[in-house]
């Protein structure tokens, strides 16, 4: 899986109003990855902020493969257009598209990785599946947990992390970035064996 170009997409909503929201964790992870690679985002005609980089280190010590880091400029629910346009522009097949996103069904702080499967009510993923014409793209799922009490899910994902969560957030972002690099350099199974618990999804 280490050969070939990867498109790594971080999901979120555009603008300062949303940048600290739980729903924007994909954008936050992409910022970590770009920072590690010393890459800078610039506007792309596919309505996305894009940076080119090499991520990770291959077994044996060679630099990791070339990747396109992308943050769609659309709102979450219409992420599919930019993702599909970028995949076509750079010639990336769906099995080399990695979508980094928030996941309600995983406890805060945990990371899971998979290819294909359902969208779990995540409208950003649903739109990407529709635009790509397949569910068979890679996902790095950063756990944000379920809303407390009777809080509406939409309200929960559009709120910033709690003060307790905010202290742990840098570790979650680093883990999600590490998992993304591992998927790229060693493959999905290597990432799953490192980040999935025995009873995990």
Structural descriptors:
single chain; 201 residues; alpha/beta; 7-stranded mixed beta sheet; 6 helices; 7 strands; globular
Question: What is the helix tally?
Answer: 6
Query: What is the 3D shape?
Result: globular
Q: Percentage of helical residues?
A: 25-40%
- Which stretches are poorly predicted, pLDDT < 50 over at least 5 residues? none
Mean pLDDT: 93
Radius of gyration: 16 Å
Question: What string, H for helix and E for strand, traces the elements in order?
Answer: EHEEEHEEHEHHH
> Which strand-content bin applies to the residues?
15-25%
Lateral arrangement of strands in the main beta sheet: 2-3-4-1-5-7-6
Number of strands: 7
Major pleated sheet: 7 strands, mixed
- Amino- and carboxy-terminal Cα gap: 22 Å
Helix/strand/pairing category: alpha/beta
Give an overview of the whole structure:
The protein has 201 residues and is of the alpha/beta class. It is built from six helices and seven strands; from the N terminus they run βαβββαββαβααα. Strands 2-3-4-1-5-7-6 form a seven-stranded mixed sheet, sandwiched between helices. α2 (80-90) packs across α3 (123-132). The radius of gyration is 16 Å and the shape is globular. It starts with 5 loop residues before the first strand and ends in a 6-residue tail after the last helix.
